[in-house]
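Memo to structure team: turn this sequence into structure tokens by end of day. - J.P.
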Amino acid sequence: MESIVITPKSKEELEKIQRYLKKEGISSKKLSVEEKLDLGLSEMMKEVDKIKHVSKDNIDKIFEGL
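Reply from structure team:
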């Protein structure tokens, strides 16, 4: 199954989203900053495997929104 990542604007918004998901019976996991960086690095490594070269623009796109 695919997943989605939601980045709330505030702690209050995060808590509101978590309450909603729990109420609806939807599983969720809060990611730490380190875990988000790990995801970004993982995406970058996938790109490297495909093209053998990653530009600064590609790196910026990967970390955009984290």
